[in-house]
Model the fold of this input.
Amino acid sequence: MDLQNKSNSSSKSKLIFIAIGSTLAVVTAGIGWQTLTGNANPLSLIESKISLDKNKNEGLFMAINLGSGSQKYGFIDKNGKEVIPVQFDINGSSLDLGNIWADINFGEISTSGVYGFSEGLAMVEIGGKIGYIDRTAKIIINPQFENGRQFIDGLAPVKIGKKWGYIQKDGKFIINPQFDKAGYFKEGLAPVALGDSPDKLKYGFIDKDGKFVVSPQYKNAFHFSEGLAAVEIGDEKPKWGFIDKTGKIAINPQFSTVLPFSEGLAAIEQTTDNSDSGLLRVGFINKTGQIVISPQFSTPIDISPLLDHVRTYLFSEGLAAVNIEGKYGYIDKTGKLIINPQFDSANRFSEDLAAVSINHQFGYIDKTGKIVINPQFDFSIAFSDGLAFVVTKDKSIGYIDNTGKYIWQKVLSKSEIKQPEVAQQAKTYVGSMNRAQQAFFLEQTQFTSDFDKLGLGIKSNTENHAYSIVAIDEKHVVQNVGLAKTEGLKSYTGIVFVKKQDATNELTTVGKLCESIQPTREMPPPPQLSGDDVQCPAGYVDFNR
Done:
């Protein structure tokens, strides 16, 4: 039997709200800050809102209820007044807005984000389905989608079943679901991908009629920015270049890594001697592909899944943060060093200020390099609409203005800090059980119902969850369970099953991680069979959907 391994697993209301640029983020207990991101692969750029426009949030900010039950959210205005009452579900797995790891002295916590208003509508989750509301909380598009994105340029990517399409603001499909990945429309075109597995995806660009303007052919692609789109070409030794809106190569693929154009320049990563084995350095090119700032800065380029949070090598307000042998400073568009390298880390400028860290403490500098807000925070982000979100060691979160004064501050209780850590532990344990079952099947050609045989070295019974295995069919499917023991916690179940690959007819194991929609201490029902696929049990959603 030829088997390959494949895994996809990985009381009183308290209102916490964060606005980050043109997006919204949620702060949950335990404090990880949450954005609309996926992983650090440019693929995530297709699934995230990428905007280099001026900060926009349409005047409403998310407010999340961190009570003991399931988390809900609503919206408040800039003065903190509740405009839309807390009522919508927060399930990172259902919204599939990705996660980002944040280590802010509270431990590594995986968290997920939620979209705010864009073009007058906000995406919401009700009963595990995605719909859209207006600013009065009226449901404009009924919850019916497995996943969705914000409206940009009048259209929103949405997912039904396993395919993505595009709807207009009345909820009608203008481009039918047919894509395996779908990005936003920017500058009239949207990047989409076709392929029956992540390693087989090919990216191209469509117009608003759904027609391919640039056929799917690239290993990876960014959205268009300033008339050009970065694309990765080649399978053996892929390189990055840029195309125009007709698909014509504008800048030959020759770079190890790139960032999209911003303020007329794009960061590129290239070896100093143009060989495959030379020393990699970062420089900048113009739109003709001419190197205008020679590769001289330390790698790697900080490719964040959300360009609003790219910290280095992206010009913003005339300056870009660069790494010079481990210390960060700022250059102008001629490559002249404006602020000497002296910081442990550095963020892009926004509203004339940039977050920098010294001895692992964050503060803010102006464009002369003068410290205007002393380093005192364990974590901070760029200013947006006059406020910046910060975290301190006393486990407080809040907003400061551009003088460093707190506009709003919240000190988290022990229970608030603990809850996401508990959930993350359960997800990690069940995900580990999934992978161990796959490894066991690879050696034994069957799954096991014996927890000890998985060899994980973890307890099957913890303070908050009990872990068990249901061998539905040891030759075909097994269910791993992390059952909540404490009121108010969600349960998790992992499913590993055997299926044939379409192209080769070879057998492969597939893992799914499912999260209960609501807190529950009841054993999950068996998974649901759907042809040669297996779906999460009723009342659960695919955490990696």
Residues 282 and 300 are 8 Å apart (CA to CA).
